[in-house]
Specification:
With about 210 residues, this protein is of the alpha+beta class. It has five helices and nine strands, in the order H-E-E-E-E-E-E-E-H-H-E-E-H-H. The longest helix is centred in the middle third of the chain and has 16 residues, at about 115-130. This is FMN-binding negative transcriptional regulator.
């Protein structure tokens, strides 16, 4: 991913926090000579202190599952939020742009054992069911139904061999334009625009 230096984010706490908040990823590989992607939840886990990996699962009927034993490098793309930046908000310049955050992770895949897959699914359900009024746990699923579903999917873990970041948040704008962009994004009422505005404000306050 092309990223000018002033848009790069190298703080792991910031990057890992973003991955965890925006964990519905695009997993990409090369399948039969062409790019192939699947949208799926991918969770960042700390396997041991300081050692991180990504975990997820895919339907066996998905052709991409055939790539899991290929030894190739996979790409997981995490993105959102994003917002259009109108040039009418600038004092002088008249070229509009787009602000956004994206993280690209490159790594190798390993297929999970059934026990590891169950552990991964348990953590996934517990995380997203926590906000439910009536949370469902994996132990609530009838054994036969769970077994049938486990046979239909393949779990994987992915190493974090290379991470690329692009936190494009108007870092190159002067204080007047920067403040106006934040004002306009907040006024839009759009949740993604507001999230971009808050991230911009936090970084400018920190001198970034």
């Amino acid at each position: 991913m092309y990223t000018p230096k002033y848009y790069q984010e190298n703080d792991w706490a910031t990057v890992s926090g973003f991955i965890r908040r925006h964990s519905f990823a695009l997993l990409m590989s090369i399948h039969d000579g062409v790019p192939f992607g699947t949208h799926l939840p991918v969770e960042l886990e700390e396997k041991e202190p300081g050692a991180f990996l990504l975990r997820g699962h895919i339907a066996n009927d998905n052709p991409q599952s055939e790539d899991f034993k290929s030894g190739q490098t996979f790409l997981a793309v995490f993105t959102d939020p994003h917002a259009y930046i109108s040039s009418s908000w600038y004092e002088k310049e008249k070229i509009p742009t787009w602000n956004y955050i994206a993280v690209h992770v490159y790594g190798q895949l390993r297929i999970l054992t059934e026990a590891e897959l169950v552990d991964s699914l348990t953590k996934l359900m517990d995380k997203y069911e926590a906000a439910s009024a009536c949370p469902v746990h994996i132990s609530d699923i009838p054994e036969k139904s769970l077994h049938n579903n486990l046979r239909a999917i393949t779990g994987f873990e992915m190493t974090l061999d290379r991470i690329e970041t692009r936190f494009k948040l108007s870092q190159n704008r002067n204080d007047r334009d920067h403040a106006e962009i934040i004002k306009q994004l907040r006024a839009s009422g759009d949740t993604q625009a507001v999230e971009i505005a808050e991230e911009m404000a936090k970084r400018r306050q920190a001198g970034q």
